[in-house]
Amino acid sequence: MKSIKESFVTDAINIKTYPLSDYDNIVVMFSRERGLIKGIAKGVKRPKSKLGARMQMLVANKIMLKNGRNFDTICEAQALNTFNKLRANLDKLTYSMYLTEIISSFCTDGDEENTNNEKIYELFYGILENIANSQNKTEILLNVIKFQLKFMSLIGLGAELKVCLKCGCKLEDGGYFSVASGGVVCKDCKGGSDIYIGLHKKIREFLIAQQNSQINSKTQYDSLVDENFCNKCFLLLKKYTDSHSSRPARALRVLENMT
Ligand SMILES: [Zn+2]
User: Fold this and answer.
1) Phi first, then psi: what are they for 228, rounded to 5°?
2) Are 247 and 257 in contact (CB under 8 A)?
3) Cys-Cys crosslink for 60: which of 81, 138, 191, 214, Cβ 3.0 to 4.6 Å?
4) Which range has the worst mean pLDDT, 3-17, 65-79, 130-144, 173-187?
């Protein structure tokens, strides 16, 4: 349902942009108040556009949108954070693009009643800032893992990592992860099935700690883990997010093709 108000103001992060005409672009954004929204950036490709660089991917703005028949028009944008450090590093940029793909594949346009929009916005903004300030790939991955776990919880698909999904017993060892169900089962419930991925106890404990930690705080594990460990956890969670998504994330293919 579209609001009857003629214009509205919101904080929003640009996640995708595509051409509409010679001078205009459509910008897809994730906004604090209304979740996923689209707007026309009129004249953005003209040399003297007043919107200009603020309409680039991964820029957070306070924007004013005017309601239109098919699309809302972005009339004003004031940059809140340009996340410049993200653009200076290919790993940072690629993993940030991966976050935008997760958001665009799980969130839908017009879901403005969703009470978690603000929390998703805060998570996205906070993790982008952390990735921008990361010193190495391990730090980037720690933030992406945190995003994967927290985002899935916010959209109601959170991973169950503490108790067995089938019998409800409290797990003592690593357990077995089901990508399709997004959680762990115990040894007895796993039986002879091969759809589960055996988890090391340390991995399960690490993931629980990330799931429960604040966006800006570190866990006791962060200084103990290395890039290889984080990458394994990241790939496991990616299988789980991909399995719930209509289209698997593609951003990382750039990196995969370079190694
Ligand atoms: Zn069980």
Assistant:
1) -60, -45
2) no
3) 81
4) 3-17
Among 32-41, 48-57, 198-207, the minimum mean pLDDT is found in 48-57
Centre of ligand 1 to C-alpha 174, Å, is 12
**For residue 85, how far is its CA from the centre of ligand 1 (angstroms)?**
45
| pLDDT band, very low/low/confident/very high, at 246 (cuts 50, 70, 90) | confident
Centre of ligand 1 from the C-alpha of residue 198, in Å: 14
Domains and CATH numbers, the chain: 7-81 (2.40.50.140), 84-258 (1.20.1440.120)
Q: Has residue 4 got a pLDDT over 80?
A: no
| 138 CA distance to ligand 1 middle (Å) | 33
Calculate how far, in angstroms, residue 31's C-alpha sits from the geometric centre of ligand 1: 40
Residue 142 alpha carbon to ligand 1 centre in Å:
29
pLDDT (0 to 100) of residue 233:
96
Contacts of 61 (CB under 8 A, 6+ apart): 11, 12, 13, 14, 54, 77, 78, 79, 80
Expressed in angstroms and rounded, the spacing between residue 202 Cα and the centre of ligand 1 is 19
Residue 200 alpha carbon to ligand 1 centre in Å: 17
Q: Are 57 and 14 in contact (CB under 8 A)?
A: yes
Tokens encoding 13: 């992060």
Average pLDDT on 13-29 reads 95
Helix/strand/coil for 258: helix
Say how many Å lie between the CA of residue 162 and the centre of ligand 1: 11
